[in-house]
Amino acid sequence: MEKVLTVNELYKSYSDFSLNNINLELLQGDIMGLIGENGAGKTTLMKLLLNLLSPEKGELIVFNKSYADNSSYIKNRIGVVFDENYLHGLLTPKRFNLIMSNIYERWDEKTYYHYLENFNLPLHKKINEFSKGMKVKLNFSVALSHRPNLLILDEATSGLDPVMRIEILDVLKEFVTENNSCVLISSHILSDVERIANKITFMHKGKIVFTEKVSNITQQGNLENIMRSYIKGESSDARSNY
Ligand SMILES: Nc1ncnc2c1ncn2[C@@H]1O[C@H](COP(=O)(O)OP(=O)(O)OP(=O)(O)O)[C@@H](O)[C@H]1O
After folding, report:
1. Using CA of residue 44, residue 49, residue 50, residue 54, what is the dihedral sign?
2. Does any ligand 1 atom lie closer than 6 A to the CB of residue 149?
3. Cβ(44) to ligand 1 under 6 A?
4. Rounded to whole angstroms, how far apart are CA atoms 205 and 130?
5. Is residue 143 part of a domain?
6. pLDDT one-digit tens code per residue, 75-104
7. Which of 51, 143, 156, 197 could form a disulfide with 79 if both were Cys (CB 3.0 to 4.6 A apart)?
8. Residue 161 pLDDT > 70
9. What is the pTM of this model?
10. Is 83 part of any domain?
């Protein structure tokens, strides 16, 4: 399988937090779940991958290219859904079609209307009159309609009811299989991550603790217990060091 993303020894610091020595690899077909406690650094890492933040050190290669000379090539091939809705509230889904077709070289109007219909979204309603679930579905429709080779999803399904979450996760899985794309998805809902991902990366205090295949992890127990015993073990180590 071809490499989609390679991260080597990436560092980023804020005054009281730092991401340290991040190494990551995503291949075509991968769905990687990114998990970790609040403040572990998941969003910061995703912003670095999207070139919204600059690292102090390290190498970031996306589709065998670096952002330095290939920013628009890379951005045209990445789909993004974050927790917050970034779509303008006064616009309608129909109007978005026009805007996105001017932004994305590979915008596919037919696919966009197909998702709107599948998700039962109205064409002419303003987005600030949408429910939270409708906004998430619209965000996914936009993110999937320019045929991205990589999707970066940060808590994208949080706040949705279980039926809607499962519906969206199933659409996502189908998209990856049909398009040989790949996904990095962060979530605190570990059952969702286990449902969809083939690999898991666990972050803790700005570092990657492990990246493992889900099949290896589930042999050791469930994800929640593994995370909890790691964090507990770490605090008892700290106590014994003290
Ligand atoms: N612009 C910023 N300036 C200073 N510190 C920041 C900034 N953005 C994030 N941080 C800090 O970086 C740390 C990691 O935050 P981040 O949002 O990456 O965590 P997270 O794993 O996504 O958390 P959550 O699960 O709560 O969304 C936090 O301590 C946060 O306060």
Report:
1. positive
2. no
3. yes
4. 36
5. no
6. 999 999 987 767 788 899 999 999 999 999
7. 143
8. yes
9. 0.92
10. no
Q: Which residues contact 29 (CB under 8 A, 6 or more apart)?
A: 1, 176, 177, 180, 182, 198
In this prediction, residue 235 carries a pLDDT of: 60
Given a contact cutoff of 8 angstroms between Cβ atoms, the answer to whether 145 and 118 are in contact is no
Q: Which tokens belong to 52?
A: 């919204």
Is this complex's ipTM strictly greater than 0.90? yes
Question: Structural domain tally of the chain?
Answer: 1
Residue 172 placed within a domain: yes
Edge-first strand listing for the sheet containing 3-14: 17-27, 3-14, 57-62
Domain that holds residue 44: 3-77+148-241
Residue 236 lies in a domain: yes
pLDDT at 29: 94
CATH of the domain at 233: 3.40.50.300
**How does strand 3-14 pair with strand 150-154?**
unpaired
Cα 44 to ligand 1 centre (Å)? 6
Task: Please indicate whether residue 85, judged by its CB atom, sits closer than 6 Å to ligand 1.
Answer: no
DSSP secondary structure, 219-242, as one string? HH--HHHHHHHHHHHHHHHHHHH-
